[in-house]
Amino acid sequence: MSDVLKSAAKLAEAVRSGETSAADALAASSSLIADRDDEIHAFLHLTTERAQAQAAAVDAKIAAGEDAGPLAGVPIALKDNMCTRGAPTTCSSKILDGWHPPYDATVVDRLEAAGAIVVGKTNLDEFAMGSSTENSAFGPTRNPLDTSRVPGGSSGGSAAAVAAGYVPLSLGSDTGGSIRQPAALCGVVGVKPTYGAVSRYGLIAFASSLDQIGPFAHTVEDAALCFDVVSGHDRLDATSIPEPLAPTLTNLHDGVDGMRIGIIDELMGDGIEPDVRRRTEQAAEALAAAGAIVDTVSVPATIYGLAAYYLIAPAEASSNLARYDGVRYGQRVDGANVATMNTNTRSAGFGDEVKRRIMLGTYALSSGYYDAYYGKAQRVRTLISNEFAAAYENFDLLLSPTSPSTAFELGAKSDPMSLYMCDVCTIPSNLAGHPAMSVPFGVGDDGLPVGVQVLAPMLQEPRMFRAAQVLENAAASGGAA
């Protein structure tokens, strides 16, 4: 069963055919979590009763001859910033410890409607602010491939849950690389969809103009399967794209013959480890061998992405996190008056990184500084979008490393700036709102996985997945050796 848990598509087919049951798949997943998660700490909470009820419902549908859905019986994990009715949703923060949402996020509804079994909620950097999953109020997650290393972040728990083989699929959220970077460090596939392609209803906000939910998987096919299930318009999300989205599975194996693919020159230079750069070059060679026309492309404004992001995202966070005031829900630390209670609650409830970003964002939005900082960052964001648009006039897809390095040791990047630099390759896609994904492509000099990033224009996920499938095939056949 553990091998079957590595493929959502195969497991769902086995459950639908009666070769195995949803209950057996859940039992296998639960056993693996019990055996090893004390060491990895991918999960914060297990939703055992809910999962058992869902598995029983799937098995009952199959016994009655009904269609149990494309993810029938597939165990899946959710990053703990997605609302799950009646179960804890903490964002790895003390300020939400013990909060049980009264509703499910739209992605949860869609997964369960497709037959998936939600087994639990995964660890993350507090309020999704971090690149290593060391900023959790409930302790760090460790990389299953080397437990002395980080799994990346902020969706490190979701990436680790797939990499450890607990579940075939998980969901994370990506604000500046928080799906793609941990996918690269854990050696799994990670997808950040087009902004608005997947509903954010029930996703606890960090930076609302940047946040996007997406899947982790062992294979490109499974990631496409999950994306097709959770994507599409949602009337409960005002930013949801109203037009129907093209399915990604239909033409997944059509290849890249004739596609024009550009390697982003600015993301291949200083700061990128030589072994990571070498794997990215080999990925480009694999795409060329499959018939793509590959060349370098300059997108100069990408070098400003990090600076713009660390003004825009904290500014939005300072506004979004103002609701945690000790009055309506979550933790409350009493004081002599309302102002003192509010201060005490936020001082005790938020960790250092969250406080750092709230202060940075509040300053950027303050009177006299708005135009100089936040306004200028938004102009840079527009510049990045315009330069990507110009690049896509000549190229169908773009290519870069996902992370500048392989997984680093826990505690190795204790200063904020070194952690912020981990997202230098991923942030531009969030600022532009475009889709991008990380695909494992060989290992670095330390034997740990390297992820290659495929970037696409808005709503061109089908094209992006086709290139990712070519890279996965090439890696499997020794093209990343």
Describe this structure in words.
The chain has 481 residues and is of the alpha/beta class. It has one domain: Amidase signature (AS) enzymes (Alpha-Beta Complex). It has helices at 8-17, 22-40, 48-63, 106-113, 156-163, 180-186, 220-230, 274-289, 305-320, 338-349, 352-365, 371-391, 416-420, 427-432, 461-476, and strands at 43-46, 75-79, 117-122, 169-173, 189-192, 213-217, 260-264, 293-297, 397-401, 436-443, 449-455. Helix 9 crosses helix 11. It is globular and about 65 Å long. The two termini are 29 Å apart. The mean pLDDT is 96.
Structural class: alpha/beta
Helix-strand pattern: HHEHEHEHEHEEHEHEHHHHEHHEEH
Radius of gyration: 21 Å
Q: Count the strands?
A: 11
Largest sheet: 11 strands, mixed
Task: Just give the CATH class.
Answer: Alpha Beta
Layout: helices, strands, pairs:
Blueprint: H1 8-17, H2 22-40, E1 43-46, H3 48-63, E2 75-79, H4 106-113, E3 117-122, H5 156-163, E4 169-173, H6 180-186, E5 189-192, E6 213-217, H7 220-230, E7 260-264, H8 274-289, E8 293-297, H9 305-320, H10 338-349, H11 352-365, H12 371-391, E9 397-401, H13 416-420, H14 427-432, E10 436-443, E11 449-455, H15 461-476
Parallel strand pairs: 2-3, 2-4, 7-8, 7-9
Antiparallel strand pairs: 1-3, 4-6, 5-6, 5-10, 9-11, 10-11
